[in-house]
Amino acid sequence: MEAHLYLSAWFVAALALLLLMLGSQTAGAAESHGQYFVYVGTRESGKTGIYVYRFHEDSGKITPLGLAAETASPFSLVASRNGRYLYVANIIEQFEGKASGSVTVFAIDRQTGKLALLNQVATRGTEPAYVSMDRTERFVLVANYGSGSLAVLPVRKDGGLGEVTAFVQHTGSSVDPKRQEGPHPHSFDVSPDNRFALAADLGVDKLFVYRFNSTTGLFSPAESPYVTVKPGSGPRHIDFSPNGRFVYLLCEMASTITVYSYNAASGALHDLQVVSALPKGFTGGNWAAEIKVASSGRFLYASNRGNDTIAVFAISPQKGTLTPIAYVPTQGKEPWMFAIDPDGSYLVAPNKDSDNIVVFRVHQKSGRLTPTGQVLNLHGPICVGFVAVH
User: Fold this and answer.
1) The pTM is what?
2) Measuring CA to CA, which of 1, 125, 167, 300 is 20 to 30 A from 143?
3) Phi and psi (nearest 5°) for 241?
4) Which residues, other chains included, contact 365 with Cβ-Cβ below 8 Å and sequence gap of 6+?
């Protein structure tokens, strides 16, 4: 009788645990199909600012909410994972009387999406074209495209930023006298394990690898401090595979993607493949802009300004190499820094020169993109980001 009661109690406890796990999974699924704010930066003279939209992930519907905040020449943005703060890189000529761009920090109103200014700090370099956060979210990383430098700024307890605490000035040049007369880092991202930071420099045709200290925010050259690409390629942005085994480098000027194997212990990169981001037969001018790996790790997307498409590639799970699938017209001109929603179901592409934003459905099995029919009018959209609404 005691054994029977013991087994019954064990069964009830196990059933309760199972129901709790199932409930947790259901809640997680409900959250993944929730609502998001979509923030879009505009950079045209006289109309600069951050605009906000409400995005319903279950239906893909996107609703304009208006101007979230005015800010000068936003070029790149990133949000904290908790959805409380937005960090924006401003390409301005001077800040506080010195030749420098800035990063502006906003607090996000979780109900309306409006942005409240927290503070604004100098980047110690000109034309900050890229802003990102380390995995601990204790530091913001900035690439100063104009003056050719990298900077790290500490995040304060209130979400604001302190002054630059780590800084590196790149040197050198490459073959294009107009665009590669000096260094022009175009991105600065940490590795999945937060131990390294990679900087793509368009001006010197190199992808730099730095050891990153997530306690101090300091960074220093890795054992293999950089890899080079074909002269005149112009490295712009990177993305890692979700498993951290591969790095994908998009080169703006050559419109190519280089696939590297990545050694997480040393940060070393070894090139595996170079593919064109353009369809065969295209002969016009093109400047590749953005690259994203799907959260599944099965597909890669890259935007083409000139060809005005999103290139879609399948990723080999074993080799990491790319096979082209499609080149999808963005229904506009000059698609810049697109974003994919956290669930991986939709892609939002801002077309800067045609003043519109287009929403695409991402097909999970094939990786292909299909327009949802939603085209939003906005003057000079350039960068976009999703923020979860809890």
Assistant:
1) 0.90
2) 300
3) -70, 150
4) none
